[in-house]
Design goal:
This protein folds into 2 domains: 235 residues, Alpha-Beta Barrel (TIM Barrel), CATH 3.20.20.70; 71 residues, Dihydrouridine synthase, C-terminal recognition domain (Bacteriocin As-48, Chain A, Up-down Bundle), CATH 1.20.225.30. The protein is built from 14 helices and 8 strands. Strands 1-2-3-4-5-6-7-8 form an 8-stranded parallel beta barrel, surrounded by 7 helices. Helix 5 packs parallel to helix 6, helix 11 packs antiparallel against helix 14 and helix 12 packs antiparallel against helix 13.
């Protein structure tokens, strides 16, 4: 089994990758996407998105990083792919699943799922320009609005020569509705195509992972929102650890806050910690009260102070 930490734009950045991968269980991380438009971006853009390139494309805990690209120009995407690999990326991932309205409006991400023939040419162009020893993976959804499109889309990608295919088992129109998950659709693809397929979507705990593997027919998984709700999820799935306690979680939140505030994205801290707390409510009922206190706060100091006091309170009542 290989477990990959998914990219979540504006949520799972290099600081979050660092925290999550050191808990064990991950075999690979995919970065947030680098948007490729009309010119080759400078090296600093690659390093900004993926600081791990400074250390051989590895997190501090030794998990390899693969950069993800988003765009529609095969030649330009290839240039960026080769630049990323030269800088230390462990292969390249192409985003064909992003549901963002802004991205789709500019003909990127999931909107390309409407055009299997274009996908074939795009992937073929990139594969022909990326040296064969480097893994070239593609991430998709089942389709734009029709899940039956996944077979044609997958066939285009396989025929074009990609090495790996990650399938998020919902269409773009499905968004992230839990009831819309369609793991059986992945099984149909994995039974037909000779390519490494990674199942993704609605994996929140160990039981979900096992159900997904059984229904999708895939041993390999990609998880993204799940680890935000249960930070040790990868290790829990692999059976090497138990979920962290609430006190351990609070220590992790304090550490994350310290790192985020010290980093170059400190202005985003209030929104990011609220996003994370919102996910954590799913696995930790105690977070419901904490989130209710923090959600209306606007400044970093008051949020940090509230989390610190929650930790102190836990010790006071011997939780």
């Amino acid at each position: 089994m290989r477990i990959t930490l998914a990219p979540l734009e504006g949520v799972i950045d290099y600081l979050m990758r660092e925290l999550l991968t050191e808990m064990g269980g991950y075999d690979l991380c995919i970065t947030e996407f680098l948007r490729v438009s009309d010119t080759l971006m400078p090296e600093r853009s690659f390093y900004k998105l993926c600081p791990e390139l400074h250390q051989g494309g590895l997190t501090n805990s030794g998990v390899p990083i693969r950069m993800q690209l988003l765009g529609q120009d095969g030649a330009l995407l290839s240039e960026h792919a080769n630049r990323a690999i030269e800088l230390g990326s462990h292969g390249i991932d192409l985003n064909l699943g992003c549901p963002s309205k802004m991205v789709n409006t500019h003909r990127g991400g999931a909107v390309l799922l409407k055009e299997p023939e274009f996908i074939y040419q795009l992937v073929k162009d990139m594969r022909s320009n990326i040296a064969s020893q480097h893994i070239f993976s593609v991430k998709i959804r089942l389709g734009w609005d029709d899940p039956n499109m996944v077979d044609e889309i997958a066939d285009a990608i396989v025929q074009a020569g990609a090495n790996e295919l990650t399938i998020h088992a919902r269409t773009k129109v499905d968004g992230y509705k839990s009831e819309a998950i369609k793991w059986p659709a992945i099984n149909a693809v994995s039974n037909k195509h000779d390519i490494r397929i990674i199942a993704n979507g609605e994996i929140w705990n160990k039981q979900d992972a096992q159900n997904c593997q059984k229904i999708s027919g895939c041993d390999d998984l990609m998880i993204g929102r799940g680890p935000l709700a249960m930070p040790k999820l990868a290790a829990v799935i692999k059976g090497s650890q138990q979920p962290m306690t609430y006190v351990e979680l609070l220590h992790l939140l304090v550490r994350y806050s310290r790192n985020e505030i010290a980093g170059n994205k400190c202005i985003y801290y209030p929104n990011r910690i609220k996003q994370w707390l919102n996910y954590l409510r799913r696995q930790y009922p105690q977070v419901i009260v904490l989130f209710s206190k923090v959600r209306t706060m606007k400044t970093t100091p008051e949020i940090v102070d509230t989390i610190a006091k929650e930790l102190e309170h836990c010790f006071d009542v011997n939780i």
